Amino acid sequence: MKKICVMIIAAVLSLGAFAQEAPAAKNDSKVAVGASINASIPMGELADYAKMGFGGGVAVEIGIPLGEGLLRGFGVSVRGDFSYLLSDSEYITSFMTVFATANAFLKIPFGSTGVAIQPEIGIGAAINLLSTVPGYEESLNSPYIDQIYSVGFGIRVANPKMAGGKMEIEFTPVYSVSPEKDALVQYVTARVGVMYKL
What we know:
By secondary structure, this protein is mainly beta.
């Protein structure tokens, strides 16, 4: 276990040194906006009621450099996403969730390759919109709000030829969990989108 911890620490420090050596981008804007599409797979208790979901979202990111090396890539973001889940229950006719989250991220570029990894953590609210068959738990037809926590590991790719280097393509797997009174709602989501620096 100690060897594994040492290897992880060494890898993070190496990435930090590599990021520190990366040259500044031509477009040094710290603000970016973007849009994405997503596919999600319910887990745990939610998997008993819903199958795969599809949706999309929008985001605003603000870079807030806190120093050199790894800290130079720190930033925050606000996201709004939705997911329409395919029902796996004869009693639920439709199931859609709208997410609003605030996130913190750390962008780590790989030299001047235009490729970066961007781990993120987030907290926010999930607004659940369900429709059931007549006579079944009609109280579920009213929207209800849950708190949600998420962690993601993004891959960003930028090309100087795309919009003058202002555009990035992102691929981000995200794990989300929402504690409810009698259940633990979980999602694994794959997000694909573009970010544009203002």
